[in-house]
Amino acid sequence: MTLRPHNPPLLSVKDLRIAFGDVQAVHGLSFDIHRGETLALVGESGSGKSATALSILRLIEREGGRINGGSIRLGTIDPVEITTLPAAALRALRGDRIAMVFQEPMTSLNPVMRIGQQMMETLRLHRGLGGAEARSAARAALDRVMIPDPGRRLDQYPHELSGGLRQRVMIAMALACEPEVLIADEPTTALDVTTQAEILTLLRDLQRDMGMAVLFITHDLGVVAEIADRVVVMQKGRKVEEARTPALFAAPRHAYTQELIDASPRLGTGAPAPLKGARTLLEVRNLSTSFGGTSLLSRTAPTPVVRDVSLTLGRGETLGLVGESGCGKSTLARSVLRLIEPTSGVVALDGTPITGLSPKALKPHRARIQMVFQDPYASLNPRMSIRDLVTEPAFLHGVARGSDRAALAADLLTRVGLPAEAADRYPHQFSGGQRQRICIARALSVRPAIIVADEAVSALDVSNARRITDLMADLQRTEGLSFLFISHDIAVVERVSHRIAVMYRGEIVETGLTNEVLRAPQHPYTRRLLAAVPKGAPLRLTGTPARAHPETV
Fold this sequence. Notes:
This protein is of the alpha/beta class. The protein has helices at 49-56, 87-93, 115-127, 131-144, 150-153, 163-175, 193-210, 221-227, 245-250, 255-263, 329-336, 359-366, 386-396, 404-415, 432-444, 462-479, 490-496, 514-519, 524-531; strands at 11-20, 23-33, 38-42, 66-74, 80-81, 98-101, 181-185, 213-217, 230-235, 238-244, 280-291, 303-314, 318-323, 344-349, 352-353, 369-372, 450-454, 482-486, 499-504, 507-513. α3 packs across α4 (131-144), α13 (386-396) packs across α14 (404-415) and α13 packs parallel to α15.
């Protein structure tokens, strides 16, 4: 792509300042994005990336923040000053000239409206389409982002889709009106590598066809290297570095940028050494789970989602489970915990079958196997303080009572990299990555034998993800904790997993020692997964490292 930076920018942010109460969250941020360009905004959770994105659409007020300085202008001829636009003009601009894909799709999709209704509403508002015409355009938008069976998806509700499919719906909605500027806040976080590659290709094709500008917010530096023309690095609300993408990875000038690059997972760095003689803690035998068709009045046949799955997990072992969005990974995890009742098969915990136990008999076993869910906001009660949230399992199982809960909360938060004083706050006061750490702290509260981690680090920036996976390794060494680690990030799976199981269309198609599966994959689907890993992922710098400059660039 040939950029012409001397032309007027399509979106210009100058000296932007954002505050939440008395806390200044963003300090004098400036950047420009030109037509047809992708600018990546990277940094740790809480660095101000998402606050910046919300401010461009003037949604920051809804989150308790305010713009207290600076300018945001849209357009190359007679640019519009967004910070002073009246409400009616903002409504006309959002979703039409500027669209946004949010980090957590379940907080953005209406849970009581069908997918088609939500998409058609946008098309009616901004394109004046109605009836069959709007439905046809909505179906075409879903098809554009490679959602299988788009006609059926239009009639489904958000909770009926996997996390990855929900994210693709959000992308389809954002692109439906062909905006001038797309703000993509972690748009591929919930996607497997094959779908991610397709979405990134789609964004590039749309830019070529429409000249669309993209503000791409992500913690995945491999994606940044693949898609971004320029990068802005943020730390604690300030811009510390800005450069063209190849130059940034070749010679980062700021120490914090170097830290982010060093923490980025890289495929091929090696897996933990295989365990020998580990006692089997979890055994799944011929497990199948189907949805629908269970009622006597149902006219539809059950839809199999998990098909005859068998696997084992040893004490102190991590088994990585990888596969496409919608392949059944999360359904398998919930079936193992009996949050969803399996159709057939056996789940045994430490030799005791738990699939046939009554709820009362199952309760003691639940303390031994805990789950960290994919969507942190959906699994945290917004009316409960963080102190009560992270200690609730311990309270329910009689592990912590009264004043013990405060001390336990402080210890758990510290262990996952949050300040102890965060215990007095509420979920909405944290970034997406911080909320995921809260969920991990909650799972640890009853000292379980097994943690089922469903995309547990997918919402975290690379440095915090590294801290969490290092914490998991420490827990395995000190307490013999076991993990069923579900992720679409194969490089992270490689780093933490002793063995890997590959899932495709509800079945386990390949399993084995991590290094062996990744070095010599046997199944065609495993080979396709590995081929889709971003090729532009930054490599660890070798030789004499570039000199890191502490000053702001």
